[in-house]
Design the sequence.
């Protein structure tokens, strides 16, 4: 090949190389410009979201599958099966509360064998409505706790749900008392308490618990329809600073409050037992 032929060949090669480079240069500039616009747009959006009051973008999701609703959100709309009553009262005990009852005295023992308990008074506006707490007091129950099969002299309080239909005491009925009230000098405790404490004033105010008794008569009535073996005369009465033989002792002001509030038209009941009964 002559020197001129080689020169022409080399010249054409350089020309083709420059032509390809020139063709690639606009495409590269276009890509750079597009990337710059995207970066500017992203920065502008970020700046917009950083302004006060600007909408906050939703968090990125890892996939498009339906997300499980938040459990707390579900629970917030779930009806409360307890209707305002505490979890310490079992479903079985709640089911024994009559539908028509609108007043409830809840006695919750500290333990199965404990003589210490707490009393909460609940009311509701109508059958099926939620319960609302209207009073709370410390209390004492039987010296040996609670029993579902109580026997006379075993020093336990009967566990269960019972109606409250009659009252009485050594003192006059507090103003507004609606339960039938028997004021009688016979409401005087004799002897000493389980721990040797004085029983003076214990029966100033009494509400009979309808356990093994006839309704519609004085709490002093001695009849025991289910037999003497189960004992009876189980009352709400004034606390004497010691455990009882089976009754529930409350502060005197609590007894006054209950007598002023309990109403036969509201079908009052008492639910009593250790926590979880």
Sequence:
């Amino acid at each position: 090949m002559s020197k001129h032929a080689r020169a022409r060949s080399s010249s054409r090669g350089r020309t083709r190389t420059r032509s390809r480079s020139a063709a690639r240069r606009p495409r590269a500039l276009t890509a750079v410009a597009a990337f710059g616009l995207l970066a500017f747009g992203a920065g502008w959006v970020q700046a917009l979201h950083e302004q006060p009051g600007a909408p906050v973008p939703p968090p990125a999701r890892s996939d498009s599958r339906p997300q499980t609703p938040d459990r707390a959100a579900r629970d917030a709309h779930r009806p409360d099966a307890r209707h305002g009553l505490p979890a310490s009262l079992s479903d079985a005990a709640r089911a024994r509360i009559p539908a028509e009852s609108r007043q409830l005295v809840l006695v919750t023992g500290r333990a199965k064998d404990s003589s210490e308990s707490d009393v909460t008074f609940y009311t509701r506006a109508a059958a099926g409505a939620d319960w609302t707490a209207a009073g709370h007091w410390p209390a004492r129950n039987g010296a040996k706790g609670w029993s579902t099969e109580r026997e006379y002299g075993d020093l336990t309080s009967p566990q269960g749900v019972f109606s409250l239909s009659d009252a009485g005491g050594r003192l006059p009925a507090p103003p507004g008392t609606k339960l039938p009230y028997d004021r009688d000098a016979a409401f005087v405790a004799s002897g000493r308490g389980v721990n040797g404490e004085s029983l003076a004033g214990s029966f100033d105010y009494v509400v009979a618990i309808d356990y093994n008794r006839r309704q519609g008569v004085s709490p002093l009535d001695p009849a025991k329809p289910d037999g003497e073996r189960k004992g009876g005369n189980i009352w709400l009465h004034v606390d004497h600073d010691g455990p009882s033989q089976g009754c529930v002792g409350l502060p005197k002001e609590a007894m006054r409050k209950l007598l002023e509030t309990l109403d036969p038209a509201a079908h009052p009941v008492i639910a009593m037992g250790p926590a979880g009964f």
Remarks:
- Residues 1-59 form one domain.
- The chain has two domains: 1-59, 83-274.
- The chain is about 25% helix and 20% strand.
